[in-house]
Amino acid sequence: MSLQTVQKWYPNAKTTEDTVNKLLDVIENELGLKPNQLMHADSMCCDDVNAIQYPPRAYEMLGPFHMGGLNGYPFAGVTGMNAFAHHVPEDGAVVVFYAPHIGITKDGTIGEIHRIGQSENSACCGALKGALSKLLNNQIEPGNVTDLDYQMNTIEQIFLKQADRIKSAENQIFEATEVMYEAINERIETLVSKTNYPCKYVLLIGAIFINGDKDMGSFCSYKKFEYINLETGERKSLMETYYA
Predict the structure, then answer these.
(1) Radius of gyration over alpha carbons of the chain, in Å?
(2) Whole-angstrom Cα distance, residue 203 to residue 171?
(3) Are strands 235-237 and 218-229 parallel, antiparallel or unpaired?
(4) pTM for the whole thing?
(5) pLDDT by residue for the chain (244 residues), tens digit each?
């Protein structure tokens, strides 16, 4: 039932366990690489709920190296991308998974979850909801990025640039999460272009990561699954293979 609830919002979502199992199977079938040849980096929100929800098979990969700050934006930057790129097996691949996250409750409410030990639902992603609230109340100043709240201010500026799109959306938190995904995807592409990888392939996996209530587990909706052959420069999508 939980998956059906999530799929009303994200039709191609799978459970996180199924997502990781299928990912590793596709990489092995298409590229001939085992999990222990994969250096895994993620760019996900630092929310504790995400750390809880890694399935066992994910740990067969090397890593993860964490690139993400609030709502999954890759705040580790060029230095972070370069750092883990040099931890990869030479005959293997770098796997970069990036995703903003959003909560969906059992009854299908988007933007919140019921966390362990709490009597009421709480925001998920809290940072995204906070930035959205400031946007809707016209409280974001253009260019205002401070040392004290650098990550949050960065998200606010991303939303401010897409203010009309978010404000006019049928569901504003859903749309703000889409905007966040696009910003993360664009930044990851820039970081990849500025990094040298001493291996065969770079795999880029962009998604929306969906947290459920405490007993629902988590889910994942892929938006991009591509590999770059570093010897030839060829780039190929594996989305059709993944969802076959």
Answers:
(1) 18
(2) 31
(3) antiparallel
(4) 0.94
(5) 588 989 999 999 999 999 999 999 999 999 999 999 999 999 998 865 655 557 788 889 998 899 999 999 999 999 999 998 888 888 999 999 999 999 888 888 888 777 667 666 666 778 899 999 999 999 999 999 999 999 999 999 999 999 999 999 999 999 999 999 999 999 999 999 999 999 999 999 999 999 887 777 889 999 999 999 999 999 999 999 999 9
Token output for 5: 């609830």
Contact 97, 67 (CB under 8 A): no
Neighbours of 70 (CB within 10 A): 23
Query: Within a 13 Å sphere around the CA of 201, how many CA atoms are in the beta-carbon half?
Result: 25
Using DSSP's 3-state secondary structure scheme, residue 92 falls into coil
The terminus-to-terminus CA distance of the chain in angstroms comes to 22
Q: To which residue do tokens 């959306």 refer?
A: 169
C-beta of residue 174 within 8 angstroms of C-beta of residue 104: no
Q: How far is CA 209 from the centre of its chain?
A: 6
